[in-house]
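#structure-requests
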Amino acid sequence: MQLNKERLWKEVDATLDGLEKPRKNAQGYRELARRLGVPVPNLHRLLNKEEAKAGLVFMGKLRNYCKEKELDFDEFIQAEETVCKD
């Protein structure tokens, strides 16, 4: 199970839409991190570093957020690529 970062970016944008004075992406990070209950640097790292992977705690908090907002949790998940070695 792997985080769908593209879908999470859309949620950052949606978070900005709900604010009165959206300034920069940083405000979206802070607000979404607050709503998820995760540290802002962790969310930033997950979204901006290719090698960063979401752990069980983050995925659990994201699942709870999805339930609360009535979002489809499966949209935030993508299948991991498997490499076959001969």
